[in-house]
User: Fold this.
Amino acid sequence: MKLQEWANEHEPDDKMRWKKAYWSQVMFVRDYIPRAFFLSNTERNDLIVVDGSHTSKSIECPVYFINLIEKHGIQIWMRDNFYDWNVSVKSENPIVCDFMKSFHDENYPYCFCQGMTDKKYKPYKENNKEFTICIDNTYDLYVFCRCLAFHLRGEKV
Assistant:
């Protein structure tokens, strides 16, 4: 299901304390993550879909899915639980690039991958084609995605 449709259908009740954070998360992914991948406006609209869900702070949150398999041979799943992001990447080719310290493999034990446990792979340092990382904040998530986009385009950061 497209992200905006899913978010509207699962909008938290007004009395939920984390409702504002829910919308901030959804709008960040909807509006900024596609830009990190240098996509056109048309491509952006269809890029992110919801592939599942999990509950955090009593709010149903999406598991985001980015399918770039045809264009770049890669698929990405992400979830945010209002504390951190878990990101799983499955690529046809090794991913070797400078991620500018946007994540640390030492945080792998904190990858609980709620809503996407079937997509929990090994840490990046163990398998750079299929890996799961834990990212502390949205800024580092954007940096990670931008660095990955440069790699996919064959450019250095």
